[in-house]
Specification:
The protein is an alpha/beta fold. The chain has two domains: 3-367, Purple Acid Phosphatase, chain A, domain 2 (4-Layer Sandwich); 373-651, 5'-Nucleotidase, C-terminal domain (5'-nucleotidase,  domain 2), CATH 3.90.780.10. The protein is built from 15 helices and 40 strands. Helix 9 (257-261) links the parallel strand 13 and strand 14 (268-271). Helix 4 runs antiparallel to helix 10 (354-372) and helix 11 (393-410) crosses helix 15. The relative contact order is 0.11.
């Protein structure tokens, strides 16, 4: 059954000289301004720190978001602070607590301690709350000084959602006092209900199967919202840890915020999960949302980015009608903690809140020790010096980890029996980054911060289904990084410097050769320039030529799967799985589980033979020590390149 909480008034904010929100400035007698403040997808980012890169950054951190709170509260006569889930997992501090320190009964989780410091009024569960298992989750949330709700996760399911025994309360009603425009106080009852994607049953099956069930978001809301109204709520706020989705309800949808907002009885919706910002250009042109009005299916709503990047604000002008309240006007915004300047640098817009830092200082210090020491070992050096010319261990480990993860995620689905390929590209491969801009982790210990060398970006894992013909064209697109080579010519330049290395996808699970004598089918931007060109030869799966009509699952990242780089078969329409995890986290988990990894290159791809032909390739001088490890390529030192690079000769 729901919990009813009573607290005298709202938490007092600063009374500094700030401009009041128009609703507070203009409210009359029997009218009151209520501000809903949202954080979402904090992912344990208490500190403004990138633990993978092991350096401070200005774009993340609850300690920064927190410094907005006093001023934001002072702009409004009445306010409450709510979190939208995904707070327990998502950076190395979360992993340190889960894998090393532990989360026993009675222990305090650092993100919960930080949230307690700020006086949160409520939260819901996100999908990542389940990543470490139910015991960890329940021990962690037991320390919260605020209610945590989720309506669609049940320990035992009844005939209807309202007959479920939910894991945590499905909703709460906050009994509060509002001050109106004339200074008089009035009671208000605010219902808070939470939802999580039902896909948690797939994403964390090993923890959840047989222990809980997850219902459809919209169907669950239709059952519970009338109950909240019957229980006396004046307004109902949905904490929707889900992306926007289709305006029409789709059974079992991961992203259902728009459809959820359409349910009668819900007055405002706080959403997240997608790590985007609403209102904002991320949703320009999307059906069911109105950027100017800040509405989702006609209801005021907000999505506050991720990792503490924004504070979401929904402002409601309420009018008292007898003994109840109704919304007469509303505004929405997502207020950032940093800004990107014209020179692409980032400037902080706020300082840290010292009390928030203090709440997690000990765990932050322990996390720094954790990321700086080994979490596994590698039998092969992880370097990217030759990633553009040969199968490479730094790309290999990414591909292996992606395949390992997607195999688990697709188990039991309609795609489980399709051949699985994995596409990955080198990120640190010299170029404009200079001769030192390469991954270089020697044989031996691998620390968590080394993963930043392996995978620079906070992408998330995706899987797409493509045909054999699209696999070939995907690789043709990648092969555009190479200049066309004249057979029999000596010391020709191999790499097109205008082609970014992150668009040079290597694909594990198939074998193939690249015929450099042929023209490229695609230009550097992915446009077709020669429809008849064919550089990819001997493309085979399981020892047999790839059938153009055969279907394959390809593990990749959200950038590529969504159309980044303009790769055939990857335009956003072929996605079959959107992971809740970053590629970095998957690599770390794989290393932790394996203990010792051996990502030696297997030479599944290479160049087709061109007798009597040599090409030149520049890379970092540090690559010389790994020259004998390069597989499938006849390569030798060829002196110095320009600007500090070393030059190597490849005999084709």
């Amino acid at each position: 059954m729901p919990i009813h909480l009573t607290r005298r008034g709202f938490i007092a904010g600063s009374t500094g000289l700030l401009v009041l929100h128009p609703f507070s400035a203009r409210a009359q007698a029997n009218q009151a301004h209520l501000r809903l403040m949202e954080t979402t997808d904090l992912h344990v980012h208490v500190f403004p720190y990138d633990y993978y890169a092991d350096k401070p950054i200005d774009t993340v951190g609850l300690s920064r978001t927190a410094s907005l709170i006093a001023a934001i509260r002072a702009e409004a006569t009445n306010s409450i602070l709510l979190d939208n889930g995904d707070f327990l997992q998502g950076n190395p501090m979360g992993d340190y607590i889960a894998y090393e320190r532990g989360m026993d009964q009675g222990q305090m989780h650092p993100i919960i301690a930080a949230m307690n410091t700020l006086g949160f009024d409520g939260s819901t569960l996100g999908n990542h709350e389940f990543n470490y298992g139910l015991t960890f989750l329940m021990n962690a949330v037991a320390g919260a000084n605020f209610p945590i709700v989720s309506a669609n996760v049940a320990k035992s399911a009844g005939a209807t959602p309202r007959e479920d025994e939910t894991l945590v309360p499905p909703y709460v009603i906050l009994d509060r006092t509002l001050t109106d425009g004339a200074g008089a106080t009035h009671p208000i009852r605010i219902g808070i209900i939470g939802f999580v994607p039902p896909q948690i049953m797939n994403w964390d099956a090993k923890h959840l199967e047989g222990n809980v069930t997850a219902r459809d978001i919209v169907a669950t809301a239709k059952a519970w919202v009338p109950q909240i109204r019957e229980d006396g709520a004046d307004i109902v706020v949905a904490l929707c840890h889900s992306g926007m989705g289709d305006p029409n309800a789709v059974e079992g949808a991961e992203n259902a915020a728009i459809a959820l907002a359409g349910i009668e009885g819900i007055d405002a919706i706080l959403t997240g999960h997608s790590h985007l910002v609403f209102p904002g250009p991320d949703f320009d042109g999307m059906a069911g949302v109105d950027l100017a009005a800040g509405t989702i299916n006609g209801k005021p709503g907000v999505m506050a980015g991720f990792w503490g990047s924004h504070m979401g604000l929904v402002d409601l002008l309420l009018e008292r009608d007898g003994t109840s309240w109704r919304i007469v006007s509303h505004t929405s915004e997502a207020r950032p903690i940093s800004q990107r300047n014209e020179d692409r640098s980032v400037s902080a817009l706020v300082e840290d809140a010292p009390e928030v830092l203090a709440a997690a200082q000990a765990e932050h210090d322990a996390t720094l020790d954790y990321v700086r020491r080994a979490v596994g070992k590698t039998k092969a050096p992880l370097h990217s010096y030759f990633a553009l010319v040969a199968d490479d261990p730094s790309v290999q480990i990414v591909s292996i980890a992606q395949s390992w993860y997607i195999t688990q995620m697709l188990a039991g689905t309609e795609y489980a029996d399709l051949p699985l390929l994995s596409a990955a590209a080198p990120f640190k491969a010299g170029g404009r980054g200079g001769p030192e801009y390469y991954t270089d982790v020697p044989v031996g210990d691998v620390a968590i911060k080394n993963v930043a060398d392996l995978y620079l970006y906070p992408n998330t894992v995706r899987a797409v289904v493509v045909t054999g013909a699209e696999v070939k064209d995907w690789l043709e697109r990648s092969a555009g990084i190479f200049n066309q080579i004249t057979p029999g010519g000596a010391d020709q330049t191999l790499i097109n410097p205008d082609f970014p290395s992150y668009n040079f996808d290597v694909m594990d699970g198939v074998t193939y050769r690249i015929d450099l004598s042929q023209p490229s089918k695609f230009d550097k931007d992915g446009a077709v320039v020669d429809a008849t060109a064919s550089r990819i030869v001997d493309l085979a799966w399981n020892g047999a030529p790839v059938d153009p009509a055969q279907r394959f699952v390809v593990a990749t990242n959200n950038y590529r799967a969504g159309g980044g780089g303009a790769f055939p078969g990857a335009d956003g329409t072929t996605v079959i799985f959107e992971a809740p995890d970053t590629n970095r986290d998957v690599i770390v988990r794989y290393i932790v589980e394996q203990g010792t990894i051996n990502p030696a290159a297997d030479a599944n791809w290479g160049f087709a033979a061109l007798p009597g032909t040599t090409v030149l390739f520049d890379t970092g001088p540090g690559g010389a020590k790994y020259l004998s490890d390069v597989k499938g390529v006849q390569i030798e030192a060829a002196g110095d390149g320009a600007d500090g690079f070393a030059r190597f000769r490849i005999t084709l």
